[in-house]
Amino acid sequence: MKPKVLVGCPTWDGKKYCLKEYAEALKKLTYDNFDVLIVDNSKESGYSKMIEALGFKVFRNEWHDSARERIKQSRNKIRKYALENDYDYFLSLEQDVIPEPDIIQKLVRHDKKIVSGIVYNNLPVGNKIELMPMAYVEHPVDPTGLWYLPKQELEKEQLVELKACSFSCVLIHKDVLEKVEFRYEEGFDDMMFSLDVINAGFKIYADTSMVPKHLHGSWDGIEK
């Protein structure tokens, strides 16, 4: 039997703008052994009802003013559900990320504990904001820091090792979930997760041929 995969993410009603396209993408996934779980941390329950009406399982998480706290708690609810229900993998697929229908089988085929797609975002480069991959390697000058996966690596379709990745589109094996909970410190939980899994002895990879569409939103007015 093919590995059992749980697909999902934390969300809130600020993501309404991309719900329809996300739902359509989930329904087009061609892998034949997956389920969906979305955790809604909106203040009110109306958004959960919208998601449920589209046919997806939804858990509610309590509201916190801090987005990082809401996201951490919501992601750990997914982690707990995945472990308790014997899923082989959790595909963290954020609601503003729209994959190709065969994304699951293409990531599963690598047989890696952690493997990410390449998702681009508007990110700082010096004193500018540029469209860059949320896939990070060792900084070329400061070995204690991170830098974006270089363009020349992205131009080749390959499996490449990373130092960190986002939760935008990443397949995580149950062996990793058993050892590492989601948490945050000054930054968001994706960077802490990357640090924690490497310290736990795991490696992070990215498949540069997998480049889902990113429906960029805004953090304006949101307390991180």
Strand order of the largest sheet: 3-2-1-4-13-6-14-11
* Shape field: globular
Distance between the termini: 41 Å
Distinct helical segment count = 7
What is the number of independent domains? 1
Determine Rg (CA atoms, Å): 17 Å
Which sheet architecture does the biggest sheet show? 8 strands, mixed
CATH architecture: Alpha-Beta Complex
**Low-confidence parts lasting 5 or more residues at pLDDT below 50?**
219-224
Protein topology:
Layout: E1 5-11, H1 19-28, E2 34-40, H2 46-53, E3 57-60, H3 67-84, E4 89-93, E5 97-98, H4 103-108, E6 114-116, E7 120-125, E8 128-133, E9 135-138, E10 146-148, H5 151-154, E11 159-162, E12 164-165, E13 169-173, H6 174-179, H7 189-199, E14 204-207, E15 213-214
Parallel strand pairs: 1-2, 1-4, 2-3, 6-14
Antiparallel strand pairs: 4-13, 5-15, 6-13, 7-8, 9-10, 9-12, 11-14
How would you describe what is shown here?
There is one protein chain. The protein is α/β, with parallel strands linked by helices and 224 residues long. It has a single domain, classed as Alpha-Beta Complex (Spore Coat Polysaccharide Biosynthesis Protein SpsA, Chain A). The chain is built from 7 helices and 15 strands. The strands form 4 sheets. Strands 3-2-1-4-13-6-14-11 form an 8-stranded mixed beta sheet, with helices on both faces. It has a 3-stranded antiparallel beta sheet with strand order 10-9-12. The longest helix has 18 residues, at 67-84.
